[in-house]
Input
Amino acid sequence: RKEVEQDPGPFNVPEGATVAFNCTYSNSASQSFFWYRQDCRKEPKLLMSVYSSGNEDGRFTAQLNRASQYISLLIRDSKLSDSATYLCVVNNYGGSQGNLIFGKGTKLSVKP
Amino acid sequence: DAGVTQSPTHLIKTRGQQVTLRCSPISGHKSVSWYQQVLGQGPQFIFQYYEKEERGRGNFPDRFSARQFPNYSSELNVNALLLGDSALYLCASSLAVKSGETQYFGPGTRLLVL
Output
C-alpha cells in the first residue's frame, strides 16, 4: 500500500463548479499535512496546510480526519486558473528527519 | 527576496555519465531537501540536509550523493546515469527540520538521459 493515495483523476469540471479531492495516508503517526499545487512543468507550491480543526482560505477548504487517516480539499466556485495538479502531502517528522511524502497528484481541468 | 534557485534548468546527458545539480536556498533557510519527480508521479524524497549534516536519505541507490556547504547551498551528484534517472529534480528549502515546517521548492532541473 502506498503511503499517500489520492483520487486518480483527472477531474474535468465547468467554471463555477465545486470539486472535492480525497486523500488517505497509511502512517498513523504522521504529524503534518499539506496540499500543494503544481502547474504543468512547474515546481510544487504550497496551497495550504491542513489541521484537525479544518481550515479555510477563500474558496479552498481543507479537512483532516486522523481517526480515518483521511485528508480532503474542497474548491468552491472553480476558476479557470485553478487548473493544475493537486498534491496531497504528509510529513512524518521523526528523529532528526522531516521529509515530505507526496501522493501521485490529481489533475484538475476547469473548462469555460 | 529571492526564492529557491537551481541550476542548470535543463540538462542532457548520456548513460554512464555523471551530473551535478546545484541549489541555493531562501536566505535564512538552513535546511535543503532534494526530490526526484518522474513524469506522472509525485516527487520522491532523495536527501535532506540541515546545518551541513545529512538528516535523511530516501530509497535511492548509492549512485546518488549530496552535500551542503557552509552557506547552506547544496549539490546533488548522480553517477553512472541510467535512462531511468531522467526526471525533474527539485530542491526545497526550509528554516529548520521540524514537524509542520513548510518546504519551499525551486523551479527544478530537468534531466534527460539518452
Q: What stands out?
A: The first strand of chain A starts at residue 4 and ends at 6.
